[in-house]
Design brief:
329 residues, 4-stranded antiparallel sheet, Rossmann fold, alpha/beta, nucleotide-binding, Alpha-Beta Plaits, single chain, AAA+_ATPase, ABC_transporter-like_ATP-bd
């Protein structure tokens, strides 16, 4: 079965008199397989929204190739648009319309049965507020309405840009449950989000973009495993000895990062080497544990956007990564 979405070598350059040329996409590749929830991650300004807008025909690329549901776009967008539901950036609605009126208007325009309006309002939790004007809605309620509008056509591919924006913790969990249920029913979901813990919980696979290039791709477990690095955290009997212990380990060839009352040690073959190296110099380990790698730490490492004490990181200060090219690679 062909992938639901494939992008190869996508290029997009913005030009302005004030800033000159800025390359938003620099040979970007992406693959989303059928029936999965795929996370699309990147820092602000990395090219995520440009990718989605280009894919949906809202802006024109400068180069590259894209397919949706097996057909090349933008040429085939009229044929596949009815099978794609999407919300990109902040959705806007008529403030004096109710949610029910808004969805009914969209359903009529798209040839969708009226019964579907009731179904999607139930799905996103707006059933009891459906007759209230949208201008009275909170940001989270407007986001629920946006997701409902994207679901009206029962799409084969659902593209969601920050769907949890404005939701409370309960709403975020409900959205997670909804997306997993949609995928289990056969729908493919492409999710762009900055809530990396949620992405790790819900997504089958991920693509990470930085400065317009792909820096990671694959099943979530595989991406985490590739960056586990075999590191360990070390605590000593006396926290006052940490700086000396760090010097000993560095001199012996390890990489060491201080972390409050412990050391994070990498570039070692076996954890026992750490305890033996320190014990030989009279320093004794009280706790030794493998480093737990999560999607947030991998993201910060790959995009080089981890906070640095005393520095104010600018939006464009993410990593410049080598392109990972190749159709479907």
């Amino acid at each position: 079965m062909p992938a639901v979405l494939e992008i190869s070598g996508l290029e997009k350059t913005y030009r302005s008199r004030r800033r000159g040329a800025r390359k938003a996409l620099d040979g970007f590749d992406m693959v989303v397989e059928s029936g999965e929830v795929h996370g699309f991650l990147g820092p602000n300004g990395s090219g995520k929204t440009t990718t989605l807008r280009t894919l949906l025909g809202l802006i024109a690329p400068n180069g590259g190739r894209m397919t949706l549901l097996g057909q090349e776009v933008p040429a085939a967008l009229p044929q596949v648009a009815g099978r794609v539901g999407a919300i990109v950036e902040s959705p806007q609605f008529f403030p004096n319309f109710s949610a029910h009126d808004t969805l009914s208007l969209l359903a009529e325009a798209g040839g969708v049965q009226k019964q579907r309006v009731t179904e999607v309002l139930e799905l996103v939790g707006l059933r009891d507020r459906a007759t209230e004007r949208v201008r009275t809605y909170s940001l989270g309620m407007k986001q629920r309405l946006a997701v409902a509008s994207a679901l009206l056509k029962k799409p084969d591919l659902l593209i969601l840009d920050e769907p949890a924006n404005g939701l409370d913790p309960g709403g975020i969990r409900e959205m997670r449950t909804l997306m997993r249920g949609l995928a289990e029913a056969g729908m493919t979901v492409l999710l762009s989000s900055h809530i990396l813990g949620e992405v790790q919980l819900i997504c089958d696979s991920v693509t990470i973009i930085s400065r317009g290039r792909r820096v990671a791709y694959g099943a979530v477990a595989e991406v985490l495993a590739q960056h586990a690095g075999g590191g360990v955290t070390v605590r000593l009997e006396s926290a006052e000895d940490l700086s000396v212990a760090a010097e000993i380990l560095i001199a012996a060839g390890a990489r060491v990062t201080p972390d409050h009352d412990r050391l994070v040690v990498s570039n070692v073959e076996k954890p026992a080497w750490v305890t033996r190296t320190l014990a030989e110099r009279g320093y004794y380990v009280s706790e030794l544990a493998p480093v737990k790698v999560d999607l947030e730490s991998v993201f910060l490492e790959l995009t080089q956007t981890a906070p640095v004490a005393g520095q104010a990181r600018q939006v464009d200060d993410s990593a410049v990564a080598p392109a990972q090219g190749g159709w479907g690679v």
